[in-house]
Amino acid sequence: MQPKPSFYFRPPAFNPLRFSLPVKQVSGEERRSMIAEAAYFRAERRNFAPGHEMEDWVAAEGEVDRKFARSDSP
User: Fold this and answer.
1) Is residue 22's pLDDT more than 80?
2) Residue 55 covered by a domain
C-alpha cells in the first residue's frame, strides 16, 4: 500500500476569530477625540495640504482601533 500524499495530513486552518484580543472600552466621545487628534497629526505631517481630510480620518480610525485591539487592559 502506498503512503497517502502529505496534503491529506494538513493541520486545521488558522481561524483568527477563535482568538480574540481584549479590547479597551472607551466612550464614543473619547474615541472620536483620539481619532481627531491622530488625524490632525497626519495632516500636520503633510503640511495640511487640502483634499486628504477623509483619508486622514479613516487612517486615524484604523490606527486608534488597532491600538485598542493590541492593549492588554480592558
Assistant:
1) no
2) yes
Q: How many domains does the chain fold into?
A: 1
Q: What is the pLDDT of residues 25-40, one digit of tens each?
A: 788 899 999 999 999 9
State which residues form the domain around 50: 23-74
How far is it, in rounded angstroms, from Cα 44 to Cα 22?
31
Q: Is residue 14 part of a domain?
A: no
Q: Could you give the CA distance from residue 43 to residue 47 in angstroms, rounded to a whole number?
A: 6
pLDDT score, position 8: 55
Q: Among residues 65, 69, 42, which one has the least CA distance to residue 55? A: 42
pTM score, two decimals? 0.61
* Closest CA relative to residue 40, chosen from 57, 26, 28, 58: 57
In a domain, 40, yes or no: yes
Strands (DSSP E) contained in the chain are none
